[in-house]
Specification:
Elements lengths: L11 H16 L5 H16 L3 E8 L2 E8 L6 E3 L3 H9 L3 E3 L17 E9 L2 E10 L7 H17 L7
Antiparallel strand pairs: 1-2, 1-6, 2-3, 4-5, 5-6
Helix pairs in contact: 1-2, 1-4
Bound molecules: methionine sulfoxide (SME).
């Protein structure tokens, strides 16, 4: 298949509605988690131009940096630390309109201004989180949350039953 994305202009809703089926086509049938996380990061960055898009995966009870697109980032995050570790601990998505106002935010780059983190659930357990950062304040809302949660459940279906790190 051709691996070109069709980039859509329009509302945020329209952009996600165009992008999600394309990502689904890219990742379904591929059981390698890292390949799929790489393509998801690239597709979101290409469509929306986010500052940083990537993944942290739970390994030995901490989050470890996985595939991403954007500037270099911190490699390990403890449970309950920063936005990512808090989302993992609370097992729910977090939208942070102003990272400087989030107690304990981990600043990988001073250029990042707002952030959304969405857990990846598999068999009701958080196996990692998706983290998206913007260079603009207040970039993310419940539309992003809705579609990124959908995307994480599409992703979870590609993970083989015998998956483990
Ligand atoms: N800001 C995140 C750390 C990861 S970087 O933004 C890529 C946090 O507070 O968990």
């Amino acid at each position: 298949m051709a691996e070109d994305l069709s980039i859509t202009r329009g509302s945020k809703e329209e952009q996600y509605q165009s992008l999600l089926p394309q990502i689904q086509a890219l990742i379904e049938g591929e059981s390698d988690l890292y390949a799929n996380l790489g393509n998801i990061s690239a597709a979101l960055k290409e469509q929306f131009g986010f500052f940083w898009v990537g993944f942290y995966l739970v390994k030995n009870n901490e989050l470890v940096l996985g595939p991403f697109q954007g500037p270099v980032a911190c490699t390990r995050i403890a449970k309950g630390r920063g936005v990512c570790g808090t989302s993992w601990q609370q097992e729910k998505p977090l939208i942070v309109p102003d990272v400087d106002a989030f107690p304990g935010h981990i600043a990988c780059s001073s250029l990042s201004k707002s952030e959304i983190v969405v857990p990846i659930f598999r068999n009701s357990q958080v196996i990692g989180v998706m983290d998206v950062d913007s260079a603009d304040l207040d970039q993310f809302d419940t539309t992003d949350q809705k579609y990124l949660e959908q995307l994480m459940s599409i992703l979870a279906q590609t993970i083989p039953a015998d998956f483990g790190f």
